[in-house]
């Protein structure tokens, strides 16, 4: 794992700013910058972001959504997580439906989108070729996720993980940042739910929810429907105390 030379950020704003300068993974740096120059034909007139994409949402979020990595022509183009691509179309529409976003669309960084008590991040902050970061790249990026969870800890009450990659990346980080992860580790699945006990001062019990990723492969085939995603987000929003009475959990648990 790369040792990051920067001083550990002491706020979410400082973290987001520090991420922008990261060049720890040569393959990802080369790819994100190449895509920003070559561009997709439909976006030929757009100025691509072409840098690491920081998390998005308030610094005192009670709910964290963890994805995979920015899309080459989505976040890598617009500079915001799940913005400007079909995966984001599905995610933000669902967030709006359950009351966690002020609008159903995410087109660019300045489109007025605001999340309610919710923040979105990823284990890898640069767009990877074929949407597949390597384990080494995930480890290089772990410093940022460690720091983000530590900074969010005072208010964090629930996490939704989109996909198995994020689930596997997140569990060891949770264990290292103050929560007790059961052994054997909880298994990923859509609708999976478990509660992690606090293992350090300043931590509260944390409810962890699993959902299939909002990739086109899942949404176009019906493996993940809008209602399936809304059900998980609604349960997590209730568990975080953002929606309703904070008592909602999905029927299926693991």
UniProtKB/TrEMBL annotation:
<comment type="similarity">
    <text>Belongs to the uracil-DNA glycosylase (UDG) superfamily. Type 5 (UDGb) family.</text>
</comment>
<dbReference type="InterPro" id="IPR044147">
    <property type="entry name" value="UdgB-like"/>
</dbReference>
<feature type="domain" description="Uracil-DNA glycosylase-like">
    <location>
        <begin position="54"/>
        <end position="233"/>
    </location>
</feature>
<dbReference type="InterPro" id="IPR036895">
    <property type="entry name" value="Uracil-DNA_glycosylase-like_sf"/>
</dbReference>
<keyword id="KW-0479">Metal-binding</keyword>
<dbReference type="Pfam" id="PF03167">
    <property type="entry name" value="UDG"/>
</dbReference>
<keyword id="KW-0411">Iron-sulfur</keyword>
<keyword id="KW-0227">DNA damage</keyword>
<keyword id="KW-0378">Hydrolase</keyword>
<dbReference type="InterPro" id="IPR005122">
    <property type="entry name" value="Uracil-DNA_glycosylase-like"/>
</dbReference>
<keyword id="KW-0408">Iron</keyword>
<keyword id="KW-0234">DNA repair</keyword>
<keyword id="KW-0004">4Fe-4S</keyword>
<dbReference type="InterPro" id="IPR051536">
    <property type="entry name" value="UDG_Type-4/5"/>
</dbReference>
<protein>
    <recommendedName>
        <fullName>Type-5 uracil-DNA glycosylase</fullName>
    </recommendedName>
</protein>
């Amino acid at each position: 794992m790369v040792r990051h030379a920067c001083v550990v950020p002491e706020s979410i704003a400082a973290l987001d700013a520090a991420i922008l300068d990261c060049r720890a993974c040569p393959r990802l740096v080369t790819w994100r910058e190449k895509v920003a120059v070559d561009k997709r034909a439909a976006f030929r007139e757009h100025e691509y972001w072409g840098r690491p994409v920081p998390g998005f949402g308030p610094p005192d979020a009670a709910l964290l959504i963890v994805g995979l990595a920015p899309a080459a022509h989505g976040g890598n183009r617009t500079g915001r997580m799940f913005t400007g691509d079909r995966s984001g179309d599905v995610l933000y529409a669902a967030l709006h439906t359950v009351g966690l976003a002020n609008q159903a669309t995410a087109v660019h960084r300045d489109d007025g989108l605001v999340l309610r008590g919710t923040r979105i991040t990823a284990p890898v902050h640069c767009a990877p070729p074929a949407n597949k970061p390597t384990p080494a790249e995930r480890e290089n990026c772990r410093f940022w996720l460690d720091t983000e969870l530590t900074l969010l800890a005072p208010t964090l009450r629930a996490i939704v993980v989109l996909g198995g990659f994020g689930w596997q990346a997140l569990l060891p980080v949770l264990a290292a940042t103050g929560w007790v992860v059961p052994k054997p580790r909880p298994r990923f699945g859509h609708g999976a739910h478990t509660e992690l006990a606090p293992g350090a001062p300043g931590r509260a019990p944390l409810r962890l929810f699993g959902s299939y990723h909002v990739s086109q492969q899942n949404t176009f085939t019906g493996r993940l429907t809008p209602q399936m995603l809304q059900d998980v987000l609604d349960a997590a929003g209730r568990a975080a105390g953002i929606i309703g009475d904070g008592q909602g959990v999905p029927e299926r648990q693991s």
